[in-house]
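DM from R.C. (forwarded with permission)

"hey, sorry to bug you on a friday — could you get me a structure for this? deadline for the figure draft is monday and I only need the backbone to look sensible"
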Amino acid sequence: MYKVIGTSKSRAFRVLWMLQEMQEPYEQIAAGPRSEEAMKYNALGKIPALVDGEDVMTDSVAIMTYLADKHGKLTAPAGTVARARQDAMTFWLIDELDAILWSAAKHSFALPEGVRVPAVKDALKYEFEQSAATLSDRLDGPFLMGDEMTLPDILACHCLNWAIGAKFPRTDDKLFHYAKSLRERPAFQAASAA
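My reply, with the result:
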């Protein structure tokens, strides 16, 4: 059984949701970042971490990719054009949504107060709006990669939810309904309740 280290209100949620979608059993240790428990699995204290037997993996996207490849679910097969396109979408989401949201979080609470630049958040909100519009334009079907849900959908929905919590501007109706449909999935609901 997998062990997921991290709280549900963090990037660990991505891993929890993915495991629920794949119907794989897991145990969650709700450790916060830089906590003593988190430090046992990642010297930097970052979450999430995934324990699979004797192996420990870190970084939510690396963990999700590992799980998708290991179980052959929520992914295109490695070495295919479809997988290259999926990976390109995943990396784009990390660069253009996740990184912007993390920068805003750093300047809200993560950095020491004396080095925070609250005014940067207006520029980050502008960047996020531009990226969200691009994502909306790229959404051509029920899911980002077509007719089947894949890893990028979990990542995109998590970022869109994060943006709501961070009081970023509302996305257009197309993205709003896309994220709403993902939040209605039983696996999302189960991961949320954990």
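R.C.: lifesaver. Residues 90 and 152 are 5 Å apart (CA to CA).
me: no worries. The helical segments are 12-22, 36-41, 60-71, 81-110, 120-138, 151-165, 173-183, 186-193.
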